[in-house]
């Protein structure tokens, strides 16, 4: 017992130090502004240097672009509105929150939570939430705007610390981004880059888009296990000691017993939601469905269904929310519906401000090529070491995790470094399927500790709903144990998986040429 208390005390001191240091940083919006200014200065200092790297996507030399020239400054000003408006998470978050806001403030979501808590054991809430978070990858970025805030609401309703629920779901949605039982759009997207890189060595090679699906499916158990253990045994006990929930919460759903009108409204609204989902399924099933991509795939990024995920989330929650509101009596007229949507947008005001500065920083960082140069330099260094194959695979995981702190997009990073990693490991006898699996592990585990993740500020906002003093440091200290545990345990899992020879996916191999 004394040893456990000592371990908890040491861990608390370590994480508290991280939280304290992180929370001394400026407001996230100002932090992104400072990072943008720093990027400008570094771009000017580094632009004269020839780093000797070739951009594999263009075949030309890669240089750091000086963003402090008159031409670049004029370009920055002329594109500022477009950069802000086209910032990918902005539209996703706002449109989804319009629908989810109606479903929450009408009482539809709280009613569903009451039913959920009625038959789900309190001890199993964590693994169920992490599982739902993992499955949410199938619906693009839906997990960030839907599952993560619900994690906080569910834990709060169950009498548990809401930030623990947010942390568990964030770990599943983002830290376990490459774990999923269900194929998603990211599978064929990464496969296309892997195949192109492999064809540098073997022009005739062809990879299955689901070449990692078995590994990512079984990896879900790793993420669930890590998330369950850390949340219940480490994260939540520490939160109860150091970050008590605010006592003046006013907009969090209450878990009073359902009234007859609410029960009726929930049943009818749920039936409408179910019928809508069935109709969507029947629409998507035919091979010639207008929801499929031109080549007939339903999970391709170009498929209208995948492009419509967020509007569908809006409709799937807005329509049942309105129906529930009028049947239960929480809505009297259409003004109440609009008031709910306005309230949901009001809660996003701080996020919109942060998104403005975040969008400008990420655009500047991308334009400067600093992130791309870091990725290529790291890959070249790893290649120069000429390590044994197992050590090289582990090196790829760790390098991918590090680069992910600077370049958030999984496809953008892989487009840059796959032409180095994949051919290099093929010459060591390692298949492109295994190299891609190693990359996916590293690409996932550090998502949850980098403020450069576009959705990171949004998760801070979700936490501030329950603990107002939550800052970047608070969230990083919450998520750091998940990141480190996943990095180590998932890496070991891949090595054991490789040793046992379990198939990585469809038509996948471990060796090249295939034996």
Automatic annotation (TrEMBL):
Organism: Cyclobacterium lianum
InterPro entries: AbgT
Domain of life of the organism encoding this protein: Bacteria
GO biological process: p-aminobenzoyl-glutamate transmembrane transport
Lineage: Bacteria, Pseudomonadati, Bacteroidota, Cytophagia, Cytophagales
Keywords carried by this UniProt record: Membrane, Transmembrane, Transmembrane helix
One Pfam family linked to the record: ABG_transport
Record's protein name: p-Aminobenzoyl-glutamate transporter family
Residues that span the membrane, as ranges: 29-49, 81-103, 115-136, 142-159, 166-186, 213-231, 265-285, 305-327, 348-367, 387-407, 414-432, 444-463, 484-506
Gene Ontology molecular function, alphabetical: secondary active p-aminobenzoyl-glutamate transmembrane transporter activity
KW Transmembrane helix (keyword) present: yes
Presence of keyword Transmembrane helix: yes
């Amino acid at each position: 017992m004394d040893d456990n208390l000592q371990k908890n005390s040491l861990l608390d001191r370590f994480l508290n130090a991280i939280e304290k240091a992180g929370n001394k940083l400026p407001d996230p919006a100002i932090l992104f502004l400072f990072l943008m200014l720093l990027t400008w200065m570094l771009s000017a200092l580094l632009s004269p240097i020839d780093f000797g790297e070739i951009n594999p996507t263009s075949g030309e030399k890669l240089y750091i672009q000086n963003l402090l020239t008159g031409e670049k400054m004029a370009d920055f000003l002329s594109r500022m509105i477009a950069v802000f408006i086209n910032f990918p998470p902005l539209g996703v978050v706002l449109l989804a929150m319009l629908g989810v806001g109606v479903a929450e403030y009408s009482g539809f979501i709280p009613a569903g939570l009451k039913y959920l808590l009625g038959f789900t054991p309190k001890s199993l809430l964590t693994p169920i939430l992490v599982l739902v978070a993992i499955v949410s990858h199938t619906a693009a970025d839906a997990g960030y705007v839907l599952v993560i805030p619900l994690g906080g609401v569910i834990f709060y309703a169950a009498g548990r610390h809401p930030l623990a629920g947010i942390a568990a779901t964030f770990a599943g949605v983002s830290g376990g981004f490459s774990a999923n039982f269900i194929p998603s759009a990211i599978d064929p997207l990464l496969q296309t880059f892997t195949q192109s890189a492999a064809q540098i060595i073997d022009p005739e090679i062809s990879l299955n888009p689901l070449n990692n699906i078995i590994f990512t499916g079984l990896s879900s158990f790793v993420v669930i296990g890590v998330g369950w253990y850390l949340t219940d045994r480490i994260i939540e006990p520490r939160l109860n000691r150091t970050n008590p929930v605010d006592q003046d919460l006013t907009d969090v759903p209450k878990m009073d017993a359902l009234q007859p009108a609410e029960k009726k409204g929930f049943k009818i609204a749920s039936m409408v939601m179910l019928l809508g989902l069935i109709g969507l399924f029947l629409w998507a099933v035919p091979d010639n469905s207008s929801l499929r991509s031109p080549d007939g795939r339903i999970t391709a990024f170009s498929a209208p269904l995948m492009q419509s995920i967020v509007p569908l989330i809006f409709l799937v929650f807005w329509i049942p929310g309105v129906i529930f509101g009028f049947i239960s009596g929480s809505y009297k007229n259409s003004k109440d519906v609009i008031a709910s949507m306005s309230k949901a947008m009001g809660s996003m005001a701080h996020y919109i401000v942060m998104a403005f500065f975040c969008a400008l920083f990420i655009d500047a960082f991308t334009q400067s090529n600093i992130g791309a140069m870091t990725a290529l330099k790291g890959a070249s260094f790893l290649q120069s070491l000429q390590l044994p194959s197992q050590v090289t695979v582990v090196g790829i995981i760790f390098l991918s995790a590090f680069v992910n702190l600077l370049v958030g997009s999984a496809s953008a990073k892989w487009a840059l470094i796959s032409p180095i990693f994949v051919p290099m490991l093929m010459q060591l006898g390692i298949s492109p399927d295994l190299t891609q699996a190693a990359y996916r592990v590293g690409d996932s585990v550090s998502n949850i500790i980098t403020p450069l993740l576009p959705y990171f500020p949004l998760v801070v906002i979700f936490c501030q709903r329950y603990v107002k003093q939550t800052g970047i440091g608070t969230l990083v200290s919450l998520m750091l144990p998940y990141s480190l545990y996943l990095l180590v345990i998932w890496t070991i899992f891949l090595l054991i998986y490789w040793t046992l020879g379990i198939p990585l996916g469809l038509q996948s191999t471990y060796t090249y040429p295939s034996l």
